[in-house]
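Dock zinc ion; give full complex structure.
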Amino acid sequence: MKISGLVDLQVNGFAGIDFNSPTLQTEEVEEVCRLLYAEGVVAFLPTLVTNDFDMIESLIQTILAAHHAAGATILGFHLEGPFISPAPGARGAHNPQWICAPNINWIRRLQHSFPNKIKLLTLAPEWNNTTTFVKELCDIGIRVAIGHTMATQEEITLATNAGASLSTHLGNGIPEQLPRHPNPIWAQLAENRLWVSLIGDGFHLSRDIFQTILNIKHEKAFLVSDSTMFAGMKPGRYQSLIGGDVILTADAKLVMAENEKLMAGSAMSLRKIIESLVQNGWLNFENAWELGSIRPWRYLGENGSPELVEVAAQKV
Ligand SMILES: [Zn+2]
């Protein structure tokens, strides 16, 4: 039977191809478009993490050259950083060397050079003058997400008042140990205007917090894969561009070699995440699929529904 295809708003790479690699080739991006489509993904946002401004610009150029590729459609870009928290734990696997304060001139230049291709930007609202920055981003058509942050409740409220609309992978990109309350997770859960993206691979979030977030956010929750190039690769120890040494386990868990409690991104496609949610009994197929297709599509404000894909009837 045919159902709306998957829409992944956070894809760092897939099948050995890393969108953040300085040697990235347009043909490799085309290959990812084909491979993701085969997994049921009809549209996605290649995601560029904290990096040198010039490098990000050059990667956008390389990726955009593939925008006519057959397969999954590149809707635009998700910039995750470089305006995130430098605090250990909050920055996750991002390279602290390139983390910096918000820079509107650079963003304006990007949005001008690549017209309206920056769709989403994840930042930490504790930087100075974030309110003005968020307003300006919204004015030029960029959706603003809060993530990799240690912001206070007040800073989260101010950013949301200014137009921030999403919490990026809530429950991740945050230190392992936090004050029980207040902390940035509660502050974002309490803010009803914020949508939330979740990595539902069974490793990034425990079942209780995953379910709690869904219970609170209802229609404003969706799944992202946050897939790295390791999604679809064999288990082993690898060198990651953003995380240094990483370990990919047999059950597709990707962790930092220096501290295996720290995740280094996901190693599952959105399709695999949905299958794992269903297999683990966290959600039924219909609900899990909706969280990966219609919901992110609605969040982006796209018209209509995602392109239809064929899915075996027994799965539904
Ligand atoms: Zn992240």
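Observed: The chain has one domain: 2-315.
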